[in-house]
Amino acid sequence: ATAALKQRFAPDAMKLLVYQKNPFFAALKKQENMGGTNLKVPVRLGINQGQSSVFSTAQTNAYAPNFKAFEITRDSYYTVAQISGETVASTKGDLNAFVELVALELSDSLLSHTDDLAGQLFRDGTGSIGTISALPGSGVITLEEPDDVTQFEVGQVLQARITGNSTLRAALGYVISVNRPAGTVTVASSGQGGSAADPTAWAPTDDLLIQGTDDAVISGLAAWLPTTAPGSSDNFFGVNRSQDRSRLAGVVYDGTGMTIQQALINGFALGSREGAEPDMGFCSYDTFAALVNELGSKVQYTNPQAT
User: Fold this and answer.
1) pLDDT band at 13 (very low <50, low <70, confident <90, very high)
2) What is the pLDDT of residues 70-98, one digit of tens each?
3) Spatial contact of 225 and 247, defined as CB atoms under 8 Å apart
4) Residue 109, Cα to own-chain centre: how many angstroms?
5) Which of 142, 133, 214, 209 has the alpha carbon at shortest distance from 178?
């Protein structure tokens, strides 16, 4: 009778095990009607000057308000969903089954697309999703920052770029497994489903990118708020931000050597001095865990509800 038994599935049988929550992506205001090739975003960098207790001096030293304009360009980013001809044929005459199949493929594509964009929002626009720390010769890549493992999925086709320049390695790497607790990614060099092997010439300190994204993705927080002060040759969307680093490239505070609590308080204080009103913070899970342990019983955690 075994051959005649039906396969049964538990209620809600298909569990979604991919990343779904992207709070920063959700919180950002979206521009959904951008026209033309770019979008000019003017900012007022400073107010007019020319103050003095002597009228003629104030008149001589008059200085007009300082305006800048970021000229934001658009980037294209595509996700493709595939439904095989055989699958289409197998649902012929069953409209509901076909609609559900299409809905599943499209929702998967949207989820994959959103995950990519959410990751890009924290990065520098170069396309890098991680950096090789070690490559021992077996196709297993140890990432420089273990948390970057969240950016990798089985099936990705990767390129490696030499650190410090725009030169891409010729060989491709095909992700065949991901060890998330260990922060490692295993690639094949011969194609999807191939055996684990190091792609030719890939080396430690190389940046890893999804093929085709080199300098062609969103300029995220690391680009808008660089930790290194912009130099005199800076040209970020048409603006040289070295004229006033804090107002044009963000307030940076180095809390190295401090407790996380101290660094946050001092950093927020500096930002507040510059006119910021911080109401949200983002950090790695390791940093968050360390902060919670550090605060201990000195703080209460609440989950405010909308009224």
Assistant:
1) low
2) 999 988 899 888 888 887 787 777 777 77
3) no
4) 17
5) 142
Round to whole Å and give the CA distance between 144 and 148: 8
Query: DSSP string covering 20-51, please?
Result: ---HHHHHSPP-----SSEEEEEEEEE--B--
Instruction: Answer yes or no: are the C-beta atoms of 109 and 133 closer than 8 Å.
Output: no
Residue-wise pLDDT tens digits, 125-167: 999 999 999 998 899 999 999 999 999 999 999 999 998 788 9
First to last CA, the chain: 58
Beta-bridge mates of residue 46: 66
186 three-class SS: strand
The pTM of the full predicted model, rounded to 2 decimals, is 0.84
Instruction: Check pLDDT > 90 for residue 263.
Output: yes
Cα(292)–Cα(271) distance, integer angstroms? 23
CA atoms within 13 A on the CB side of 30: 8
Q: How many CB atoms lie within 10 A of CB 294?
A: 13
Q: With beta carbons less than 8 A apart as the criterion, state whether 133 and 187 touch.
A: no
- Report the half-sphere exposure of 132 (CA within 13 A, side-chain side): 27
SS3 173: strand
| Residues forming beta bridges with residue 49, ordered by sequence position | 63
Which residue type occupies 175?
V
Rounded to an integer, what distance in angstroms lies between the CA atom of residue 204 and that of residue 7?
48
Q: Residue 141 phi/psi, 5° resolution?
A: -100, 125
